[in-house]
Amino acid sequence: MAKRGVLDHPKTLDLAGRLHICPPFAMGLLEALWHWTAKYKPSGDVTGTSPELFAASIRYAGDAAQLWNALIATRLLDQVDGRVLVHDWSQHADDAVRKYLYRAGANFADGSEPRRKQYRQSRDDGETQARQEQDSVTPQSCPPLPLPMPIPEPLPLPDKTPAPASPPPADGSFALESEMKAYLDRRFHDFRGLVHAWWRTANRCDMPWDASEQKHLKQFIAANPRITADDFDTLLMHRGQSEINPAERPRAWLATLTNYANGPLDRYGKPMSGRPEARVGARCDPDPDAPVWQAIFTAELLPDYGKLATVNEKAKLAMSLAPEHVPRDGLLEKLGEIIALRERHNQPSGKENR
Predict the structure, then answer these.
(1) How far apart, in whole angstroms, are the C-alpha atoms of residue 201 and residue 283?
(2) Which of 176, 214, 216, 333 is the most buried (most CB within 10 A)?
């Protein structure tokens, strides 16, 4: 894909400067861009592509919007008549992409026809000389040509129309695009807020949460694409009513959360129906403030939350994320009090700063 001279090209150096990375890493991003375009956008037209989905597809861990804007600013992505095209894609595309467009009867997004790349003149010198020698032969010295054979009927080309999207398989195997959709699904933030709210009803300390918990929650969403927030909340409630250790960190039980779909389980993993007295862990009664905490935890995950200066602004943002069934009377004041307490709790003391 990448041509000779891409590493020290001014556009590559400009991209590296805008993203504050080394030029070899910038060349790797360009190679990833061209590989992704060849697989998902063979014509070179990337109009409407989500920067977050693109960044996740090429495994870019930085700011997705910054990467997308940097590619446009360096003209590695061209904006033409309201469209976004990969710069000189008709030159960077390999023969597999050209063959695909040719069989599909399509052209590149810039209007170029998908012809095969021309070989260098140095490689064609021998063939050119052979053609000249053949052209110099007189017709009298050539034997008579045989009668042409009948041309067979061409076989029909296989249908290249993609099959309609089918529901995800029951065994949990997903294609790359489905996994990315699960990764970017809003349910990730909603489910994490529910886990935080449930943890608060069962424990007095802050819930441990790092990359391992995020990984297990993403895998749970990918394996259960049709589960809703209400279903997830029911699973958490059943687990809280089971004979479990309520302080066990989420990464240890997120993968087996669906075991509680039919109700609480005892310490041996058997249903607890007929044994209502056996309750260890979270209390059975739902916490009325759980939706309020869920709204706060969901707001804290948004990138704009940290940019808000006052507690009132943060409370208004959290209020917009609260479920519709939560009464709005006094909700803003309650959110403000909880946010203020959390900020004072998270603020380091004077002894720790010494």
Answers:
(1) 7
(2) 216
The b/e string for 222-239 (b: 16+ C-beta within 10 A; e otherwise) is: bbbeebeeeebbebbbbb
* Domain coordinates in residue numbering, the chain: 10-104, 177-260, 290-353
> Which 3 state secondary structure label does DSSP give 170?
coil
Which helix (H) or strand (E) segment holds residue 146: the answer is: none
Considering the entire predicted model, what is its pTM?
A: 0.34
Average of pLDDT values for 269-295? 59
Residue 207 CB partners (closer than 8 Å, separation 6+): 195, 196, 199, 200, 249, 250
Query: How much is the mean pLDDT over the chain?
Result: 76
Percent of the chain topping pLDDT 70: 73
CB 318, CB 335: distance < 8 Å: yes
- pLDDT of residue 331 exceeding 60: yes
Burial of 114 (0-12, 13-18, 19+ CB in 10 A): buried
Q: To which H or E segment does residue 143 belong?
A: none
Q: Tokens for 133?
A: 């020698």
The first and second tokens of residue 27, run together, are 């060349």
| Distance between CA atoms of residues 78 and 26, nearest Å | 18
β-pair partners for 84: 79
